[in-house]
Amino acid sequence: MKKKKKSHTREILHRLFKNKLAVAGLVVIILLVLAAIFAPLLAPYAYEAQDLTSTFQAPGKAHLLGTDNLGRDILSRLIYGTRQSLRIGVLSVAIASVLGITFGSIAGFYGGKVDNVLMRMLDIYQSVPAMLLSIALAAALGPGLNNAILAIGISTMAEYARMIRAQILTVREREYVEAARAINASDPRIVLKHIIPNAFAPLIVSITMNIGNSILAAATLSFIGLGAQPPLPEWGAMLSAGRSYMRDYGYLVIIPGICIMASVLAFNLLGDGLRDALDPKMKN
Amino acid sequence: MGKYILKRLLWIIPVVLGVTIMVFTIMYLTPGDPARMILGSNATEEKVEALHEQMGLNGTYLQRLGRYMKQVFVDQDLGSSYYTGVSVKEQIKARLPYTLRIAGISILIAACIGIPLGVLAATHHYTWIDNTAMFASLFCVSMPGFWFALILVSFFALKLGWLPAVGIKSWTGYILPCLAGAIGGAAGLARQTRSGMLEVIRQDYITTARAKGQTERKVIFRHALKNALIPIITVMGGMFGSSLGGTLIIETIFSIPGMGTYLTDAISKRDYPVIQGGVLFISICFCLIMLLVDIVYAFVDPRIRSQYAGSTRKRKAGKGDKKE
């Protein structure tokens, strides 16, 4: 049994690595992670170091990507920014998936009235557009990156809840669930050990893609002043700060935007590749 | 059919009530005291207390919720701004059309670009057209809409001076915000259309259509696209939600006097009645759109129609070239 599983994983990885775009996405993600880990070594300057004698330097020798209105080195801020972006992506998706899986498991597992009530609640909750809900929650929690992460996590949990519920409904009556119940396994154990592993494929694709989406959402919140607060080098916040000087110093806006886009694109490419690799039927 | 629509219409009531309670609760849990913010930190305790009374901020959660629900649903009043004293209802009436218009036009542009692109990619599966179209749309999905808006402004407004950078005094002011709002949706729709088309193209009835000598054009548009469009309608409805969210941000870039500028301004001031009223209203608009989508869906999809119709209809629907 174990041997078969291993070869299955290998087959998926093989398919994944054959997909050039997915590999490109993975490479970018690895680079981002490395940049985040080794930020102090890679960054030529400290991210908060101001040099008021050299503000608005165009990209050049001393500052590869130029400096901002306070003379801070943009490259260094971008490198430190990877830490924030990855933290946002991973934490908000973790919050969303834990909340969603718990919610969806309860609904799917207990079924009947509980399911009905919970799913109607989810319908109501989803009738507020996710971005608006994130804005409202982030506003209520107060500005700050952690609050933005929490807000995004809470407002995107519905997808996981629906996915897990659907999965549970299809496998609830299967023999292996019955067998697990027969040996007196607790409900959480059945969900964690038997149901979630079976929903692994759609779950991992969603998680990968949503890391990208969360980075995008957090950048949006920072842009309107609800996410990261200065001097924290978050890409959305940098973009927002550079906006006032856009007319003369376009690079202040363009460069952080490219970083956001590249990292979101990387997660999307990997997610797409994973979906095709996990479910070759879908690829036609 | 009528039963389905009625059922769907009645469901709006609990949704609106639920959203009201949710929005109220979020604002209730917000730390920070608006009375103190208005009066400043030197205000005496009595003064703060008096203002609480006046603003309806005293009492328990349930008392305040009850008061708010009564105010919204019985008196049909959303209160007035803590700062300007202007009625929230009047402001929403003046501002909501801008937001809805931009979000709506954005969706239309997105559909006009995205759906043909998706069809093109699906019909040229595995060719460079497919690859380019899909990479381009993935690129656009990953792009922050507000960033694209800024790039558009700096190029078309600041550099070339063709279009206004802010405001919407004439129709030219709509071009950039709508384009910025459309890009993500267009890309998303292209991806959705492509995968929908690919799924449909493999069906037996497409082979049948080809076998009976139907022109390729007719096969694609009459048989394939028509079936692939059904799930896309739902996607477009859901997209209206994200488009509304995106429009809120884009409005602040173009200084458009819509809901976005209103809300972001209110958020920074903790102007509860404005935030509550604004979020509530946008959500209700979204609910109505989704209701419309569900009804349209029932009209175009014979499978749903047949569920609520008599048995004669059911047989008729089964004869159509729907995928099962």
From TrEMBL, chain A:
UniProt domain ABC transmembrane type-1: residue ranges: 82-271
Keywords of the record: Cell membrane, Membrane, Transmembrane, Transmembrane helix, Transport
Membrane-spanning segments: 21-43, 88-110, 199-229, 249-271
GO cellular component: plasma membrane
Topology within the bilayer: Multi-pass membrane protein
GO biological process, one term: transmembrane transport
Protein name: Peptide/nickel transport system permease protein
Organism: Murimonas intestini
Subcellular location: Cell membrane
From TrEMBL, chain B:
SUPFAM superfamilies listed in its UniProt record: MetI-like
A Gene Ontology term for the protein's cellular component: plasma membrane
Membrane topology: Multi-pass membrane protein
Annotated Pfam families: BPD_transp_1, BPD_transp_1_N
Entry keywords, A to Z: Cell membrane, Membrane, Transmembrane, Transmembrane helix, Transport
Occurrences of domain ABC transmembrane type-1 (ranges): 96-297
Ranges that cross the membrane: 9-29, 102-123, 135-158, 170-190, 228-254, 274-300
GO biological process per UniProt: transmembrane transport
Location(s) in or outside the cell: Cell membrane
Name of the protein this chain belongs to: Peptide/nickel transport system permease protein
